Structure prediction request, 614 residues.
Amino acid sequence: MVIGAVREGLLGVDDPEERFTNLYDRHYRSVLGYALLRTEHGMAEDVSSETFLIAWRRLDELPDPALPWLLGVARNLLAKQWDSRHRRQRLVDRIAALSTSQDHLILDIAEHVVDRETALAALATLPEQDVEAMALATWHGLPPDQAATVMGCSARTYNVRLHRARKRLDRALGAEARVARPHPRPARARLTEEA
Amino acid sequence: MTYPTPRSRKEDDMTDRVFAQLKPGELDELTEDAYLRRRSDDLARAFQTPRSPQRSRRLTMPRLPFLITAATAAAGIAAAVIVVPGLVSGDATPGAPTTAAATRGSQDSQGPQTVDARSFLLAAAVTAAREPAESGRYWYTRERVIQKVTVDEAKYTARVKTLVKEWEARKRELKGKPAELEAANKEMEKKIGELKASPPKVSYAATAAYTEDSWHARKKGDSNRTVGNQDVKITFGSPEDREKWKKAGSPVLREDKPSTGDLDLPLILSIDNPTLTIQSLAGLPTDKEGLERQLRSLYGKSSAKDRVDFAGYLPQTSLDLLRAPLTPGTRSALFKVLAEQPGITSQGEVTDALGRTGVALTSRFTSDGDSFEFRLIFDEESAKLLEYSTTKEGESSPLTRVAYQDTGWVDRLGERPRD
Prediction:
C-alpha cells in the first residue's frame, strides 16, 4: 500500500472496482454539487452518473488529482450538448433556485452588510465564466491550475477571470455597502440570528 | 495610497467570503441524499460496462436521456417544452396552425404524396453516397429552436420572496420561543419544498423561438463557439393568451439578447453516446452491416437500453449522427440501416418550422410510461435533415422542434458557409 492511495484513494489500489468505488465515494458529491449549480436536479444527477461512467471506462487514464478531470467531464456533458433540448442555466439563476430560507438573507462580513438578493444581483452582472472562476476557487476549493483544467483554459486565463470577477464583485458590493453603512450596525444585523 | 493600487489579499478574502456565503446551504444536503440514493446503481452500472483498454475510437458509451425533458419536467423548475404555432417564417398570425400540424392529422395514408419510408431511405442512401466528401476547420450549424413556455419564473420568484418575508416576520414574533421557532422553520422548509416540487405554471399558451449558431472545431484543442438567443420571438397561442400574459405583468419569457459562448473542450455529439466526437465520426463504418453492428454494440453498452429498445434508440442516435459531419459513406450506410428498421413510417410530405417541404419519417418510443412520436424531416432531393421533433402522444403540438437552417464546413469561427 502506498502513500498515494491515502491521498487520492486510487494510486495504490490495483483492483479496478475498488479504485472506482473509492473514486466515486470520494468525489460524487463534489461532481453533483458542481452540476446542480448548472442545471436542474434530475439532469444534474444524470450528468453526474454519466461522468462516473466515463471515468470508469477511462479509469486507467485518470490523472491525479482526479477531481478537476471529473468536473471537466461534467462541464463538458452539461455545456456541450449539441442540441438545445436541455439548456445549461446560468450559475446565478441556479444559486437563486437552490437558495432556501435557510440561506442567510443578510451577508454580514467585515464592514459590509449586504442583502443576499443584492449580492446575487451584483453577481448577475458578471460574465458567466467569471462567476464560474470564483465558484471553482471558493466553493470547490480548487487551486488555479486545477480550476483551469475544469474550465478548459490556461491557468493564466483562469487567473485573469478570477481577478476580474473579484474586482467586479467587490465594486458592486462596495457600492451596496456604502448605502448600508450610514445605518449603525444593529446588534442583529443578520435577520437569521436568534436572540 | 490612492488608486489604482493592486488588490490586497485582504480585499480578495473579503470578496471571497461574501461569495462563499452565496453558496446555497441546501446543496450539501441534496448531494448527500443523491449520493446515498444513486451509489449502488451507479456502481453496478459501471461494473457492467466494459472498460476501454485504451483511448480508442470504439464508440461505446452510454445513455442518458434524450428525454430528460420528460423526466425532469415534473421535478424541474426551468423545464421547457416545445410547441409549434406561428413558427413558420413569414407567418404573422400567432397560433395559426402550420402545414405540418395539419399534415400530421392526416397521417400517412392520405398525404398528397405518400412516400414509403423504406423506399425513401434507400433512395436517400444513394443520394448521400454521391455527395462529395468535404472538410474544413469548423462544422457550422444554424438551428431554429421553438420551446413552449411552461414554468412561470416571475411568479415562482415572487412566491419565494413572499414566503421568505412571511417567515422573517414570524421569526421576529417568535423570538425567545425556540420550540415554536423550530416548528416555524420546519413549516417554512416544507412550503419552499412544495413550491419547488410544483412550480407555478404559466396560465397562457406561449412559445419562445430563437436561433442558435454553433461552430464545432474539427481539431482537438481548437475552441468551439455557440451564439444563442438570436431573433427571439415570443408567440402566444391566441390574443387571449397574450392578454393573460399582460395581466401577469408581461414577464420576460426569453431574454432577447444574443449570448456567445466559447469553449475549448472537445464537444460531445450525442448525449446517448458521449464518446462520439467529430474526430471519431470519420472512423465509422461505411457499409450497412458494419455500421449496424457498430450501432448495436453502442446500444448494448448504452443505458439508453434501460429506457428504450433498439428501435427507439436508433432514430435518436441517427439524429445525432445526421446533424454531424458524417462521411458520405457512413451517411449512406446509416440510411440503409434505417431502411431495414421496422417501426419507421412515412407521413409523406410536410412543411417544417421554416416553411420548407420535406418527407417526414416517424417512429415511436416510450419513456417513463409516456408514449412519444419522434419525427425526422428530410429534404426529398438532397436527403438533408431539415428538422426533428418529439411529440407526446395525445398532444397536438411537439414537445421539441428544431429546424436545421444551415450546416457546413467553414474555416473560421464566426464564418458561415457560402451559397
